[in-house]
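Pair request: fold both.
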Amino acid sequence: MTTPADLETLLALQAADDGVRRLEHQLAGLPEQRVVDELGARSAALEGEAGALDDRRAALDREQRQVEGEIDALTRRRDEERARLFDGSLTQMREIQAAEAEVASTERRRGEHEDQLLDVMERAEALEADVAALAAARAALAEELDAAVAARDEAATALGDRIATARAERDPIHARLPEELRERYAAAAARGQGTAVGLLRDEACTACRITFPRTELNALLTGPQLTTCPQCRRLLVIPD
């Protein structure tokens, strides 16, 4: 037979379990964790930007080496043609004019490549400024993320301690119930997503909050003090 003390213990156990679940819900939805997630997403985005800048830097390095190589080749070609003009190997006017034209053409192309090299170096300088600015932003964000992680861990630890305390306080309440009631409580909790017990209050079950029709209400009020809610199938305590 279920005693009034058993009914009080059932309600106390439900209140204790509700308290544990509320704390666990808070732990799962820590605002500090949301801050960490947001900062982590920003950090990943900046890492992607850094990768893109590294690719641009590598491309500019390749372009600069290529232009410098072309300038070196043109310089050697110009110097070779100039040497031919003055070493006496060219005796025909047509050969001399061709060599002079080659020198002029090579010098013109060399000047164009030098202008191109200057453009590459200017772009590289601007890119290095972007790299430095991004590095500073990443360093600042890393500090912010470290602080956010520390705050998250502190909040999680505090909540974890509260959950452990709430569970420890819940266990003796659970132990006071007779075995049969513990089994009924566990089965009802499994059906009711953690909520096993409701109380008849204001013509409704506090677990499902559904108001009973008059005929059901009368049957509940004249029946046993511990029954099953006809709406949600949880345990239902009928107060005196």
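--- second member of the pair ---
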Amino acid sequence: MVVTLLAYAYAVGERSARGIERRCREDIAFRVICANATPDHATIARLRARHERALAATFTQVLALCAQ
């Protein structure tokens, strides 16, 4: 769920973990993605830091698919 949340957040220009957390409370699209839950900004930031390489590879693949 958080990977999908990050992909969508980046697509709409939201990169801040605190901003993503806030939008999970306020924005309906973010609420749908995270099943009306609000992940803590620290959780988002830790996941992003721990899995930086895997996320970069995933986002690179997404961009390649979009380019096709």
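Observation on the second member. Residues 52-67 form the longest helix (16 residues).
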